[in-house]
Design a protein that fits this description.
The chain is an alpha+beta fold. The protein has two helices and four strands, in the order H-E-E-E-E-H.
């Protein structure tokens, strides 16, 4: 009886693991493009933290928390004001989130009223929290 239970437990575990792996494999990479005509690549939003182009990699020039922030690819697009800024809730052309087929998934912007922003209610909560933290840190001291 014990062996039967272990057998079914292993089947359940491996079916869950393979389903999760398949989901990760089939999930499209979400890339960030910014600037005029969205030609500046500024990182991968859902790549793992060890990927060189990931925004979560602190040792990459694409990383949001790297130690050389003024020289990172994202620095220009996290200014407090500007039409291309992710930190300006009124920006008209914030960074765009797209997949490899150029399908638009939304915009990297702190606006809570813009329906296609990562900070819109029920959007990308983790990304919004990190972006808001970065934008608050970039504000000059009063």
């Amino acid at each position: 009886m014990r062996y039967i239970f272990i057998f079914f437990l292993n089947i359940y575990y491996f079916s869950f693991t393979s389903a999760h792996a398949q989901e990760v494999i089939t999930q499209p990479r979400l890339m960030l493009y910014a600037g005029p005509l969205y030609k500046d690549f500024i990182g991968c939003l859902n790549c793992d933290q060890y990927n060189f182009i990931s925004v979560w990699n602190n040792y990459s020039p694409y990383g949001w928390d790297n130690t050389y922030t003024k020289y990172s690819h994202f620095y220009t697009y996290r200014q407090e004001h500007g039409i291309y800024s992710a930190c300006d809730p009124y920006a008209t052309h914030p960074p765009r989130i797209v997949d490899k087929e150029n399908k638009i998934y939304g915009y990297l912007n702190i606006s809570k009223t813009r329906h296609d922003s990562v900070c819109y209610p029920n959007a990308m909560k983790v990304v919004c929290e990190k972006l808001t933290e970065i934008c608050d840190h970039e504000k000059p001291f009063s």
